[in-house]
Amino acid sequence: MVRRRFSFAKQALALPAGVLLLVVGVGFALVARWFDGELTDQYATRALAVAHTVAADPAIAGAAAVDDPGHALPARAEAARAASGALFVVITNRRGIRLAHPNPQRLYEPVSTDPSEVLNGHDTMNVERGTLGLSARGKTPLRDGQGRIVGEVSVGFEAGKIRGYVLSQLAIAALLAGGALALGLGGSALLTRRLKRLTLGLEPHELADLVREREAVLHGISEGVLAVDAVGRVSVCNDEAARLLAVQPETGDPVAKLNLPPALLTAMAGENPADNLITVAGDRVLVATYRDVRRDGRDLGGVLTLRDRTDLENITRELDSVRTLSTALRAQRHEFANRLHVLSGLLQNGHRSEALEFLHAVSDPVPLADAAVDDPYLQAFVAAKTAEAAEKDVRLTLADTSWVGARVTAPVEVTTVLGILVDNALEAARLGARRPARVDLALLEDGDVLHISVVDSGAGVPETLGERIFTAGVSTRDGDGRGLGLALARQAARRLGGDVRLARASGDGHGAVLEAKLPGALA
């Protein structure tokens, strides 16, 4: 059986409440004790002051010295008691015999407490229990005109009266303490409620589990994850996202200041939906998906997930190259079979001279590509693209000024750039209005630098686009998955230290002119 945990909200409320109760309770007890002692001392001091006042009367001292033969002291003591509100005012002679007492039956009896200290000339203050009950007392010696001690004066205030006053004051203090306690508990409740709202109602152990799971998931998956809060600041960026985007953001950095592709910034701004959005970041092709995150109607930001499609894109282009070569080989196979059929027919019909002429015709020197281009990669590429262009009813020609005598040292980058430029040109020529449709290709060696120029007979690039055609997602034609080729071509060229540029958007009799410079591409 799983034991239910005491919720953090209740703990956060119970702990301050307990501390407040303890502090207020202990403080109240200490204040009550101090106040009780302080008030008792004040009443004892007051009793001593009244005793000093009574003892200062020479008539009272004179009467006490002769044991009050006229019985005047009880009346004088009662007057002083009534005036001061004391419990009693007692006057004794030198031997401690009462000469004045509130209870007449106690007259001429020894006092109930030891009078020796006072009769020896010392004032005393204490709380004692006598014949009239517990009281705060002040005692002082009674002296005659020559300063001789002739008795004592004892004044007491009832302890019950002191306790009643203390309790009345403590009741007021208790109300104030209760108010402070209620205010503290209310503040704790508000703090707990805010804390619960900030943590979305999750318990601390649940938050800890979430953090551990998040770290395990974020750093254990092959996808990049970039999360932003509601105001567009980075809250999470795992290692894969940092690698794919080539950024190292800190928590709290504005996502707008990161060097991200415009398509991603637009998607994260909510301007366009991002679901399997294909874009280019650096030298990588990425598939991005952006989702808004909400909880209980509250905007918490969004999460951008990234998948690396670079390898898949490279494989796709390699497959396209293989398909192009196979198409060219299939066309050559058909052509070769037709030639064999013609040669076989001539020989079977005895036309030996015509057969020899046909053999000479079909065994002419290699095509122009082989003569102008010595590298096998470029030869195969030009041959394959020529066959592909013919199938699209487009004529692909290699310019007479082309010359490449060195070997290609970066075949991947070269075929990527050349393939994208030629493919785009073939498509533009096929869709263009000019006929015959054509594409002119020029390849020129300059040391270890390979220069490429591609001209098509298409409609050209609109002036509103210009250099923007090299931005991922920007294309002259509509459709999903377009606008990546030229961005990839430029990135492949820049990996070699070169570039791809739009030389002319259009011109008389031709469409766009694209040029590429690939340093270090040739041996």
Description:
This protein folds into four domains: 8-165, PAS domain (Beta-Lactamase, 2-Layer Sandwich); 223-308, Beta-Lactamase, CATH 3.30.450.20; 310-364; 366-518, Heat Shock Protein 90. It is 47% helix and 20% strand. The protein is built from 14 helices and 15 strands. The strands form three sheets. Strands 2-1-5-4-3 form a five-stranded antiparallel beta sheet. Strands 7-6-10-9-8 form a five-stranded antiparallel beta sheet, with helices on both faces. Helix 9 packs antiparallel against helix 10 (352-362), helix 12 (376-391) runs parallel beside helix 13 (411-431) and helix 13 (411-431) packs antiparallel against helix 14. The longest helix has 48 residues, at 8-55.
Keywords:
alpha+beta; Beta-Lactamase; 4 domains; single chain; about 45% helix; about 525 residues; 5-stranded antiparallel β-sheet
Spatial sequence of strands, sheet with the most strands: 2-1-5-4-3
Mean pLDDT equals 78
Annotated CATH topology of the largest domain: Beta-Lactamase
> What does the overall shape look like?
rod-shaped
Q: Count helical runs.
A: 14
Number of strands: 15
Number of domains: 4
Reading off the top of the CATH hierarchy, the class of the largest domain is best stated as: Alpha Beta
Percentage beta strand: 15-25%
| Rounded Rg | 55 Å
CATH superfamily of the largest domain: PAS domain
Helix content: 40-55%
> Secondary-structure element sequence?
HHHEEHEEEHHEEHHEEEHHHHEHEEHEE
Strand pairing plus helix content: what structural class?
alpha+beta
Largest sheet: 5 strands, antiparallel
* Distance, first to last CA: 75 Å
List low-confidence stretches.
364-370
Q: What is the CATH architecture assignment of the largest domain?
A: 2-Layer Sandwich
